Amino acid sequence: FGSECPFDGFEILIFKAGGANGISYTLCPYCYNHPPFEDLAIVNQAKSANGMSCVQCRHPSCPQSAVNLGMCLCPYCRKGTLVFDPTSRPIWKSKSRC
């Protein structure tokens, strides 16, 4: 993907699953396995979820974080953030981070 994680210097990867209409997201391999935000690690354990993707990152200098890709309040739940999906080109999409 051509960028590095500001926390650890690992290269940012793109995860894709499910073909053309499937999911895709960016992640740092280290942060995915060792989330740098303690509260996020606790939430993931409670949900039996795996690690942290870049869109969950709150680091202000991370180009893939919700801090930089967030567009507006989620129109569906009014609590989350609507986030630009940089992996969706050439047909640009946004994702709800609720």
Describe the structure.
The chain is an alpha+beta fold and 98 residues long. Helix content is 18%, strand content 24%. It contains three helices and five strands; from the N terminus they run ββαααβββ. The strands form two sheets. A three-stranded antiparallel sheet has the order 3-4-5. The protein has a two-stranded antiparallel sheet with strand order 1-2. The relative contact order is 0.16. The mean pLDDT is 78.
How are the SSEs ordered, and which strands pair?
Layout: E1 13-17, E2 23-27, H1 29-33, H2 38-46, H3 66-69, E3 70-73, E4 81-85, E5 93-97
Antiparallel strand pairs: 1-2, 3-4, 4-5
Brief overview, please?
This protein is of the alpha+beta class. It is built from three helices and five strands. It has helices at residues 29-33, 38-46, 66-69, and strands at 13-17, 23-27, 70-73, 81-85, 93-97.
SSE order: EEHHHEEE
Q: Specify Rg, calculated over alpha carbons.
A: 13 Å
Number of helices: 3
The CA-CA distance between the termini, in Å, is: 25 Å
- Strand order in space, largest sheet: 3-4-5
Q: Helices and strands: which structural class?
A: alpha+beta
Which properties best describe this structure?
about 100 residues; alpha+beta; 5 strands; globular
